[in-house]
Amino acid sequence: MHKITVVGQGECEFEDQFTLLECLDEAGFDMPYSCRGGNCGACEVRLLSGKVENIQDTVYETDEAHILTCSVIPISDIKIELI
């Protein structure tokens, strides 16, 4: 289990959900998203600390400081910020 901190919104635990977005959605966070497949970039957030693993290839590209919550899982405790 890894702790996820969303700046200004709170914390939750990642417990074997399919994606980070699914975890945040189940925990009641108001996270932006559209396609859930890495095509649109609507779920892009800034990764402030921690590490994630990409679990699917995406069409939308991010820089090193940003991630798509629909396409990653945390592999450590993480802290993210909506952009």
UniProtKB/TrEMBL annotation:
Name under which the protein is recorded: Ferredoxin
Pfam families on file: Fer2
Assigned keywords, A-Z: 2Fe-2S, Electron transport, Iron, Iron-sulfur, Metal-binding, Transport
Gene Ontology MF annotations: 2 iron, 2 sulfur cluster binding; metal ion binding
Family: Belongs to the 2Fe2S plant-type ferredoxin family.
Record PANTHER family: FERREDOXIN, FERREDOXIN-2, CHLOROPLASTIC
Domain 2Fe-2S ferredoxin-type: 2-83
PROSITE patterns with a match to the protein in the record: 2FE2S_FER_1 (PS00197), 2FE2S_FER_2 (PS51085)
Organism: Hydrogenovibrio marinus
Essential cofactor(s): [2Fe-2S] cluster
